[in-house]
Amino acid sequence: MASVVCTLRDHQDDINWCAFSAKLLATCSGDKTLRIYNAEDFSELPFSPLKGHGYSVHCCCFSPCGQLLVSCSTDATAVVWSTVTGDIEAVLEHPGRSPVRICALSPNAAHLVSGASDGTLALWDFHSKRLSRTGGVRDTTMVACSFSPCSQMFMTGSTYGDLRLWDLHLNQLLAKKDAHDLGVSCCSFAPIILSCNQVVQFRLASCGQDCHLKIWVINKFTYGGFDMVLLHTLTGQTAPVFCCAYSSDGQLLVSGSVDKSVKVYDANNAVLLHTLNHHERYVTACAFHPTSPLIATGSMDKTVNVCRLEDGRRGGKSSSPGKAVAGRSKLLVADWSEGDVSEWLVEEGLQGLVDKFKANNIDGTELLSLTKETLASELGIESVGLRGKLLRKVEELKSDSMSSGVPDEFLCPITRELMREPVIAADGYSYEREAIENWIHTKNRSSPMTNLPLLTTLLTPNHTLKMAISRWKTSQ
After folding, report:
1. How many helices (H) and strands (E) does the chain have?
2. Do 380 and 363 contact (CB within 8 A), yes or no?
3. Residue 348: CB partners within 8 Å, gap ≥ 6?
4. Could you read off the pLDDT of 193-223 as tens digits, one per residue?
5. What percent of the chain has pLDDT over 90?
6. How far apart are CA 363 and CA 114, in angstroms?
7. pTM: predicted TM-score of the whole model, two decimal places
8. Taking Cα atoms as reference points, which of 331, 340, 342 lies closest to residue 404?
């Protein structure tokens, strides 16, 4: 669930970009200004709006400490602002005086890249505010740029539709031509790095005029080579996608489109979680807050919406033994209370086991894990026939659960059961933690989905998928 926290209506023209720091929200517009808001109550700061550009402001980004803000404009400059005073700290004139369409700061704040409408790139030493190098691609317009989380390279996108990876010497490391038919609109590196032995892996999201949002895997090999592989193509939006951004943990991905919608995805499983339809015109900008579940989106309707993402979790299920069967049937068996299990035993003609089950506090999760051994040794059920009947009924429950319309992405690929503690493995897929841990220990670290070696045994909790499963369960 997502709800609008506030709508900011201060700009007089299209919103072109928005960016969060831990304490502030910055927006920029075709009205030549930037506006700065407190990220707690979204009151505008006293020195806002920031005025210094002569033409439309296309992009803005905060320094990691949040005390500096960089913006770029059609006036061929990138301006560095103090977010403490609102003063201009530096004006960086782009080589050739071409309109600057995009700017990006490295995560370590050592470098700034600006890209222009003539295809040129300028790499700046951000500490000294001096130009280090220039390069680029001729006869195109640079409209997208994002630094890798290691700060050692950056990706650019152009109106040609290509994505190009550069190092800090402006050497081109790889090029993916026709990444988006009709042109790239935006790109964003995920803030996570996976590494093992001879490969370091990055994730990148890109969007474009082809109406697609794409997720790529970029592999850096120890011998110095790179490759780029398409992992997912998300087609949830029906018109050109103008903007995309990862959350600070890399678990969520947001995009905005000409169809006026904002889509929020589980980035690792390519699952749509939220659709927001609060703008009246094209959505041109989106950003996640670094620590709070907030998204800012900007539009050609001249507004910025700040939305809060809710996890959908509610209070625990009632454990009252008198609850109606219809109510229990809406729950997953794993969520049954002890009372639910007792009711089920009576319905299946196994009422003689109710007292034993109550005495051993058997709930739904424990019911599904029962074996012949535990029935005999722990519950003291001596009858082989009774144990067999009970286990057959439990297997029927499992089969019913599998055919009850559970979304496939919520099922562990190994056990084909609903995940309770989903984690992300190095192959990019999500699994039940216990299942993938056992797999890794017994299957020589191969991927259950691809059969390729896992680059690392590191498992990352998939909080976003767990949240989506929780929401789905409460809706049943």
Report:
1. 8, 32
2. no
3. 393
4. 887 767 889 999 999 999 999 999 999 987 7
5. 57
6. 59
7. 0.67
8. 331
